[in-house]
Specification:
The chain has 525 residues and is mostly helical. It contains 23 helices and ten strands. The chain has a two-stranded antiparallel sheet.
């Protein structure tokens, strides 16, 4: 008879308590959840590393050293999503076979450590494209933002329409405006990769492609608490190996590869006789060393060759990185020289375009949380190094004058936290006026919409012809909020457009006009 496994139950409860709020925070289109939920996003390792949050990184490393890769089964939303996919895949099976049968496979150390090394080298050279594409949290964010959230909004609209027919207006119709085709495609690709790898090899993504999982494996192989065999109690039934989704248990040789174990405790739960236990067992013990030697015989034989290969490849990787950097700089110079494309406007708090590209992983939480819906994910229109990162687009709205939501929720601090006073004086761009497009000139009619919607009085009207007035921009007051661009009635090319600052500047806050007190006699007529 199986003993109750409290470890697995505790792991599932903790995973739910972390995963569900994160998922809801991404799909919350009505802004009903508390803002402090974004603190759960700051537990993710890749954003913490790129954001320079040393304390959090040390905490995660200590957690892995003590308990193994708890992060991959509890804290990482992509890891929990893979567990959900695995559970869904088992639904159609018969009751007796709802537990999938996995098998032990030797670790692909050369592949996974090469990916980790390449990711690190490229990041040092300021190219985080691999971090963007392989970071599990960012991939989950794109899946939630571009797939789950639109589905929730679509269901909401169906329910709202149905309730409206019954004169019930509890729900309201919402517009899905900040989802792009490229964003949907990237999310579908990420979800498909998760599904295929889970269906065929369990946690293969976490133990081959994921740089976070590989980084933790360097620490978890020395974890103090680990899953290990009790050789006297083991009956060699093989249940533990068949339930290990990390494919890290070799039931024949009674070994557990702790570098790949994600501490899901499925194996401990399947063991009827207590032959497998999660216990305090430091790796420096002789027994652990022997077990590791048995599982890595082939790799140890090839280790010198592998080390020589890796050592020889480092200069090549450096040369590739340097070459890629030169190509990107050349593409940037060509874009500026030909003037065929303006730079993307990055959110207030990003400080500069280059810094934003070096830190943002494109998780798109800022896109979903922006109350004005001015943040949109990009494709390849600004180059591969800006792929999937958000840009400010004043299509039908503008950046609220004192809104700091995006800087509060950003887990990598690619958008640094700003106070309302700092936000009101941060110049992300400058309004550029095209007089030949303005209807004041083309149609000889009054307008002034841009001036009326400028919160800093940077756009003001000056005499033009006769009684007509035309806009004029004071760059010393403009903060690039897009109030003028979003309201401009000229289509398709608007008469006033925000041109991005490659490095953000600061302007003086406009002085408030004094309100004169007027004494009114009688009725004021």
């Amino acid at each position: 008879m199986k003993k109750p496994n409290y470890l697995k139950g505790l792991r599932v409860v903790l995973a739910i308590l972390i995963f569900v709020p994160i998922l809801l925070f991404f799909v919350d289109f009505a802004d009903v959840l508390p803002d402090n939920l974004h603190t759960l996003l700051h537990l993710q390792i890749m954003p913490a590393i790129l954001g320079g949050m040393a304390g959090l990184v040390v905490f995660q490393f200590v957690l892995a050293l003590l308990f193994g890769r708890i992060y991959c089964s509890v804290i990482c939303p992509a890891g929990v999503l893979q567990d959900i996919i695995n559970r869904v895949f088992c639904i159609g099976k018969k009751k007796k076979k709802r537990v999938r049968r996995f098998g032990y496979h030797k670790p692909m150390n050369i592949l996974r450590y090469s990916i980790l090394g390449l990711t690190f080298v490229l990041a040092v050279f300021g190219m985080i494209e691999l971090c963007t594409l392989l970071d599990p949290y960012s991939n989950f964010g794109r899946i939630a933002s571009n797939l789950f959230r639109p589905v929730v909004m679509w269901v909401n609209n169906l329910l709202a329409d149905g309730l409206a027919r019954m004169d019930n207006y509890t729900l309201y119709h919402v517009t899905i405006s900040n989802v792009t085709v490229f964003g949907v495609i990237s999310a579908l690709v990420a979800l498909l990769v998760f599904i295929l790898m889970v269906v065929f090899r369990g946690r293969l993504f976490c133990n081959t492609l994921c740089p976070v999982g590989t980084l933790l494996s360097l620490i978890s192989r020395y974890s103090l608490f680990r899953i290990s065999f009790d050789k006297e109690a083991c009956t060699h039934c093989g249940n533990c190996e068949h339930t290990c989704k990390a494919e890290a248990i070799d039931s024949k040789n009674l070994t557990v590869d702790t570098s790949r174990c994600v501490d899901c405790f499925n194996c401990v739960s399947s063991c009827a006789k207590g032959g497998l236990q999660y216990r305090f067992k430091p790796s420096f013990k002789k027994e652990a060393e022997t077990a590791r030697a048995q599982t890595d015989v082939i790799q140890q034989a090839n280790a010198p060759k592998s080390r020589r290969t890796v050592a020889a490849s480092l200069p090549i990787v450096s040369a590739i990185a340097e070459g890629m950097g030169k190509q990107q700089d050349e593409r940037k110079r060509q874009r500026r020289r030909h003037g065929n494309k303006w730079l993307p406007i990055v959110p207030p708090g990003a400080i500069s375009l280059e810094r934003f590209k070096d830190v943002c992983t494109g998780c798109q939480i800022c896109v979903t949380q922006c109350p004005s819906h001015v943040l949109r994910p990009t494709g390849l229109e600004y180059g591969f190094d800006y792929m999937l990162k958000p840009r400010v687009a004043y299509i039908d709205s503008y950046c609220n004058y004192e809104c700091t939501v995006c800087s509060e929720v950003c887990p990598t601090h690619a958008i640094k936290p700003l106070t309302k006073e700092e936000k009101a004086t941060t110049q992300v761009g400058i309004a550029t006026f095209f007089i030949n497009r303005c209807i004041v000139k083309t149609e000889r009619t009054d307008c002034g919409a841009c001036s009326e919607h400028c919160p800093t009085q940077a756009v003001h009207m000056v005499p033009y012809e006769g009684t007509l007035t035309i806009p004029q921009v004071n760059p010393d007051l403009c903060i690039g909020c897009g109030g003028c661009e979003s309201i401009c009635p000229v289509r398709p090319m608007r008469a006033i457009i925000i041109k991005a600052n490659e490095v953000h500047k600061f302007v003086e806050k406009p002085k408030e006009e004094e309100v004169k007190k007027v004494e009114i006699d009688d009725f004021g007529f």
